[in-house]
Predict the structure.
Amino acid sequence: MTDNVFVVSAAMIPFGKHKQSSYVGLAVPPLIDALRSAGVEKSDIEAVYVGHSYGGMMTGQRICKEIGLGTVPTVNVDNACSSGATAVHEAYTAISQGLIDVAVVIGVEKLTQFGGGTLPLSAEDREVKQGITMPPIYAMRATRYLHENPATAEDLALVSVKSRKHGALNPYAQMRQHVTVEDVLAARPIADPLTLLMCCPTSDGAAVVVLASERAKKRLGVQKSIRVAASVLHSGHVEEGFRDMTKPEITYDSARDAYAQAGIEAKDLDVIELHDAFSIAEIIYYEALGLAEKGRGFELIRNGRTTFGGDVVVNPSGGLLAKGHPVGASGVAQVAEAFWQLTGNAGARQVDDARWGLTHVTGGGTAGLDHGACTIHIFEAA
Amino acid sequence: MSTTAGLSAEGASLPIADLEDESSIDTFDEGIRLVGTLCDQCGKRMLGARVVCSACVSTEVSRVALQSTGTLYSFTTMRVGADQPRVLGYVDLDDGVRTLTDLREGDVPLVPDARVELRTSGASWWFTAVAGS
């Protein structure tokens, strides 16, 4: 039997290019905001989990010492784009098992330190040595998806159009200008069939959430909270031969386990934040998360089923494409969005009567794996 | 050639010198081929020179030539980064192993499911589409 775990506060800085800020400079403001809005004192905190991939040694400790938060365990977590969500999963696990009552989760990343371009991957990886980066991996998914199904480049563009439409409503989003299908298709080609506007931007950012047990939630007198109904982390499984790149097993498996843990089905969801690092990913993940049959995900974006007024609102924040994708911060920012959506605090992008929310983030380009990591959380309004 | 070098000696684990042999291709009896590894225990074929089977964890493995023909799974033309435009794709070799590869236009156009063949020039290697199905 595991204890109920709640997210009791969330904070983040607007994602963007914050070249003047260090990892500490990015993360300390949302850390202070998250603690204050939950009414949490430093003495209440029993562990800190910090997701980042490029922050260097002791990133978490460097952040926490600025507010004199120490002594308790600080765990730095790297799982590429899933780093932040993995940190949430670790905090959830510790609290659900009754080991601790209050944990702080920080996700932070500064990608402008690399001066733009594609995400640096491990130089030891076989395919990285051959010249692979993330855009061609997703582009090959797209090529195959368009080959197998009656989907078009316009469908890929529609994902970007929706993301920007949502991002325009989100003060935390990096890209807030509307774009048209024509704009997306005419943008600079990156890796065919993907154009620049089908790729997430280079982002800096930080997000913080506080997780607490039911007992701590009562003790702290928390006003707003959401329940963690499922927290699932899977790792990629190596395939030496054929792999269906349009059917990422790591997300299918994680979704199956998350729905089982939460006791709900895909159709019960009101809001989803999923890993749209590139527009093709959103369509493939509609299918992996059970919103559409395999090969039919493109119909959802084509028919407007995943925006406001549709069956479920996918990426109301603008997603990685519009909100931005500071790798280690993204998984925590998704949970922050779920917190605001399910507590009725999402402003102009509020999904009406949102009760169930799902966040999904994968991580890593590694030879032989679909992705290195996949984290899925399901939340229920409390 | 069977290899267990670098795995253990007199009970002590030793590092694998996996940075030593960087070449993806080599000359075999069959000709110049991609280097692969065959598990002597379970028969799993893998890309590159490996010391352990990723399926059965046997360290009884052999260095083998992989098939020079296969089917193009997917591909993209990279428009950013070094040496662009550059065409990269995944090829499923006829012995079941998948490899990332550079692709060059041949007599027939590059499309998913096209038949492809290995070509080499010195240390360079790539696949090109060929007629047939």
